[in-house]
Model the fold of this input.
Amino acid sequence: MACRGLLVALLLAVAVASTSGLARAAERPPNFVIIFIDDMGYADIGPFGAEGYETPHLNRMAREGRRFTDFYVTQAVCSASRAGLMTGCYNVRVGIQGWLRAASDHGIHADEMTLAEVVKQQGYASACYGKWHLGHHPKFLPTSQGFDEFFGIPWSNNMRPLPFMEGTRVSKPTLTEADRNNFTALCTQRAVRFIESNKSRPFLLYLPHAM
Done:
C-alpha cells in the first residue's frame, strides 16, 4: 500500500507541475509522455551538453518543460529500473532483480499497481511502444498491466531470438537486423499516431526506446 501511495503522489506532483494553474488542471487532466531510453549517458542529448550533433526537439521539450539535473533509479539495469518506474516501488520489493532473460518465468505480479492502472481509473487512454522487459508471458505484458496497447519487444535489443509483439500476440518470431535498425522509428511513428488519435482525451504514453 505504501508503494501505491507513493505512485499516486508522484503522479499528482507531476500533474500539478505540468499545468499552469489549478484552474487549468480542473478543466482537463494533463497528458503524460514518458520516454525511457536504454544506454543513454547523461550528456548524450542537447539539454545536458551533447556536442557534435543536435537534438532540437528534445531541447525544446527541456526549454518548455522541466529539466531535472538529478535523477535516481532503483537499480541501473533494464528490468529493475523499469519495475521501479512502473510501480513506484524498489525493484526488490516487487521481485525484479537485474534483467529478465528469455527463460525467465516471472514478471510484475498482477497485484502490483502500475502507472497505467492508476491513470486508467481516471479514464485515461494508455499505450506502451518499445521495450517492455518486465515479463514476456501474457499475464506480465503491458496489456495485462493497465495499458490499452502494446507494440514492441519483450526483452533487450541484443537478446536472440528477439520476437516482435502486438498486445500479447507474437507478430514476428525473430526480428531481422533491418527490423532492429528501424525499431526506434517504428515505435515513434506509433507514438505519434496514438497522440493524434487521443488528443481529445487525457492519455499516458510510455515510450521505452531500446537504443
Observations:
- Strands lie at 32-37, 125-131, 149-153, 164-166, 169-172, 203-209.
- Residues 1-10, 12-22 have pLDDT under 50 and may be disordered.
